[in-house]
Automatic annotation (TrEMBL):
Residues 1-22 form the signal peptide. InterPro entries: Bact_OuterMem_StrucFunc, OmpA-like, OmpA-like_sf. CDD domains: OmpA_C-like. This is OmpA family protein. Transmembrane segments: none annotated. It comes from Sanguibacter hominis ATCC BAA-789.
Length: 346
């Protein structure tokens, strides 16, 4: 990913984020400032409010944690001075008032989200912004310390105040320098000094780490896949795969189950659970529970041919586990399904 650099003087005077301007001939070189992306949001999330502008500068691996550096300010033309209540959302427990804690780093590949580390009694390991003030046209750098990222994580998405985000931010090594012993540093004058290692070590990273779920439906809405870092659940819409009251796969349904089997094999799954479900309308021929089990068995048999050696358990739940109301046709359609669940090995 190409890095964007800014000349500090350009940013501080005009907030022209995203450009690089050479210093005048004979002038001292201005420090280069990394910028992964820029953002803007209105004061307190109100569309009519003064707009806050800023940039995410870096996400860095440091001993025992991950440091996020970003800056905020107001445009020169706004005439508004930057203050804490203008730029940051109010802190909520366990964070303290004035702490810049509305930071979330998301690893969309690893399906994990990270929030600022918390030290009991002290709140978050983030910049204290209670004394924040800056003239229009000047940016101030703040930081947040989050749990360590896996070595395999190379880019992340950073979400800040009022939901603004910067995506595909590279994860790099080492704190930014030079470090200034302050929680708030004017952009171009260095970077906030991070908390010492013993303070970082006193925080529980598990408290600030959250598993995410990915939910994806195909274009035909025949399958919906929900995935965490450990498990995958695939929902097969029965109306696409089977005729009413039948348990023989349609041609299109067979192709999708075969493709699913190949995916299961590629993911290295060794155990699979296939469960059939129906709506509340009674099947007069064999009953809802038997119909749901036969459909599940049909799917399981085809997966077995694609994934040799896999252990598959089959069950039919009939109408006992609805996911929607059976009072509407749309709800009944959602309840007619076969689910395929397996653990992720790779």
């Amino acid at each position: 990913m190409r890095r964007t650099w800014l000349v500090a003087a350009t940013v501080l005077v005009g907030l022209t984020l995203g450009a690089t301007q050479a210093a005048g001939e004979g002038a001292p070189a201005a420090p280069e400032i990394p910028v992964a992306g820029t953002f803007t949001y209105p004061h307190f999330g109100k569309a009519s409010g003064v707009r806050v502008v800023g940039a995410v500068h870096a996400v860095r691996r440091v001993p025992g944690a991950t440091a996020v550096y970003y800056s905020v300010g107001t445009a020169t033309a706004s005439g508004a001075q930057l203050r804490t209540n203008l730029a940051f959302q109010p802190g909520t427990h366990p964070f303290k008032i004035g702490q810049a804690a509305a930071v979330t780093v998301t690893d969309p590949v690893g399906l994990t989200a990270y929030r600022p580390l918390i030290v009991e009694g002290s709140g978050g390991l983030v910049s204290d912004t209670t004394k924040l003030t800056a003239d229009p046209g000047r940016l101030v750098v703040v930081y947040a310390m989050l749990p360590e990222l896996p070595a395999s994580t190379t880019t992340v998405d950073v979400q800040l105040e009022w939901g603004v985000s910067v995506t595909n931010v590279p994860v790099e090594d080492g704190a930014l320098e030079p470090a200034v012993d302050s929680d708030l540093v004017p952009l171009g004058e260095g970077w906030p000094a991070l908390p010492p290692a013993d303070v970082v070590a006193s925080a529980d990273p598990g408290r600030s780490t959250f598993a995410l779920m990915s939910r994806v439906a195909d274009t035909e809405e025949a399958t919906t896949t929900e995935e965490t870092t450990e498990e995958v659940s695939v929902n097969l819409a029965a109306d696409f795969f089977f005729a009413s009251g039948e348990w023989t796969l349609s041609a299109k349904g067979k192709a999708k189950v075969e493709a699913l089997g190949k995916t299961i094999a590629e993911r290295g799954a060794t155990t699979v659970k296939v469960t059939g479900h129906t709506d509340s309308v009674p099947d007069e021929r064999i009953g809802n529970e038997e119909l749901s089990e036969r459909r599940a068995q049909t799917v399981a048999d085809l997966i077995t041919t694609t994934v040799p050696g896999v252990t598959i358990t089959v069950a039919g739940r009939g109408q006992s586990e609805p996911v929607a109301s059976n009072g509407t046709d749309a709800g009944k359609a959602k309840n007619r399904r076969v689910t395929v669940d397996y653990e992720v090995a790779k």
